Amino acid sequence: MLFLLGRADDPNATYTGCPIVQSPPTSFERSWTSHFTLRRRNTVRNIPGPASPSWLFGNMLQLYLSPTYGDYEFDWQRIYGPFYRIKGCFGQDKLMISDPVSLQYILNSRHFKFGPSMENAIHLLYGIDSIMGVNEEDHKRIRAALSVGFTAAAVRDYIPVFEKAAQTLIEQLEESSGKSINICPLLSLATLSTISEVVLGYSTEDLGEEFMKNNFQILTIASSQSATQIVADAIGARLPGWVWRGAIHLPTATCKAIRTAKRLANELGNQVLREKREAAEQGLDINTDLYGRLLDLHRLDKTKNTLTEAEIVAQTAITMIAGQDTTANTLAFGLVELAKTPELQDNLRAEIHSTLRASDGGSVSYDNMPLLNAFIKESLRMFPAEAIGERTAVEDVVIPLTGSLTMTTGERISHVPVRKGQNLNLAMASYQRLESRWGEDAQEFKPSRWLDGPTFEGEAVGPYANLLNFLGGPRTCPGCDSITIGLCVTFTDSDHHVDGVSR
Ligand code: HEM
C-alpha cells in the first residue's frame, strides 16, 4: 500500500488538474439503481479472475511482492481484460479495474471513498484535518484554498527553485563523477528541498536534523512491503478507527516514527506561520510560497473561504510527504530508461542544447521541447509512482464498462453491480499498459508514441496526457502541473551522461 499519498460540486471552482465533477445522480444511475435493487445477489463472485494460491494471502503476494512490478498483474490483464476479480487476504473478493470508463466513473462519483486501510493510514500520518482526511464540503473548501499555491502563475514562480535544486544535484553528481552511485537518496533529498522551499519557504537546513531523520524513516516505512505487512494491513482494515488510534501509542519503532512525524509537522507548521505573521507585521511580502499565500489570504479576508491558521498547519505533513518519493521515483525511472538507451539520451541532449542556445540566457520554453515532453510522459506512463489506488463503495452501486464482461456463469454484462463495502483496486499501472488504449506496443518504453500522432484510443481520463499517475476527479493530485514543469527543469538542467544502471 502506498499510503503516503498520495475531491467538489462547484463546477466553477478552478482547481489545478482535471475538471472537478462531483456528480449528482445521473439518469444512468437512477435507472440502474432500481435494476440493482432487484438483483442483490453477489455478482462480484462470478467475475472471472486468477485462481487464488492461498486463503491467507489470496493473490496479494503475487500482486505486491512479485520480483518485478506487474509480473502477474499485467498477465492477468491480458487474460481477463480490464475488469477482473482477485482474492485479498482471508478470501476477500477485490476488483482490479483498469477499464477507462469504469475508472472515470469511480473517480468522479460520490459513491466511493478511500478504502479502510488507506483511510486509517491517512488519519494516522496526515491527520483527520488534512486535505486527504476530510470529505465533501470541507474537502472542497480546503482544496479551493490550497489552489493558490498551484496556479499557473505560482508554478512559474517556482522555476528558480527547481533550477536551484537541479544545480545542487549536478554538483553532487560531479563529486561522484566516474563512480557508481545510488541516485535515489539524492533525488529524494532534491525533491524534499524543492517542496520545502515552495510550500514553506524553508531550506532543508531550516527543517532541522530531527525532521530530516524522521522524514527518511517515514519514507522507508511507507515504501517497505512484506508478507507480514500485507496480512497486518488486511487485519487492520477490519478494525474500527478507535483501535488504530489506540495502536499508534504502542512502543514499536514504526508507531514511534509516526508519532514523531505528526509532532514535528505540527511544530514546523506553527513555527513557519509565526515567522510569516511577524514578517507580514513588519510590512514584508510573504506571498512567496504556499504557506505565505495562505496566511496572507487569511489576514486579508477572514471569511469561510480562507483557511484558519490551524487548518493551514494541518496540511504540513501531507504537503511535505506526499510529493517527495513520488516525484523522486518518477525521476529515477526516467534516468534508468536514459541509461538503457544512449541514443535517446543523445537526442534529448541535442534538443536541450539547441533550446538553451535559442533562449540565449533568457527564460527557457519547456513546451517547445517535444522530445523532452514525450520522454516525461512515457516515463510517467510506464512507471506510475502510485501503481494502485484504493476505494470502497459507500453504497450499492453499478459501475459502467467500456464494453461487456462475460461472467463465469456465461452471462454477459455491460455494467457491474457492486455492494456497499466492496473493495476496488484502481489499477493505474495496468491502465497505462492497456493495449486497447495504447496499442500493441503498450509494454514498450517508446517516447516516440507521443510524437507520432494520436497516442491513445477513446475518451481522455486523468488531468495530464490521458495518464492516471495523478488520478482524476475531485481528488486529482494538486501538484500535477508543478511536477510536470519540475521534471522538465530537472532533466534540462541536470545535463549529465547517465552511463549505466544497476538495481
Ligand atoms: C510524480 C509526483 C506525484 C505523483 C505521481 C502524485 C500522485 C498523487 C495521487 C495518485 C494522488 C491521489 C491519491 C488518491 O486519491 O488515492 C495524489 C494526491 C495528492 N497529492 Fe500528489 N503526487 C505527486 C506529487 C505531489 C506533490 C509534489 C505534492 C505537493 C507538494 C502533492 C500533493 C498531493 C496532495 C495534497 C494530494 C491530496 C489531494 C486531495 O485529496 O484532494 N503530490 N497525488
TrEMBL record:
Subcellular location as annotated: Membrane
Record has Transmembrane as a keyword: yes
Membrane in keyword set: yes
Pfam families for this protein: p450
Domain of life of the organism encoding this protein: Eukaryota
Keywords: Heme, Iron, Membrane, Metal-binding, Monooxygenase, Oxidoreductase, Transmembrane, Transmembrane helix
Protein name as annotated: Cytochrome P450
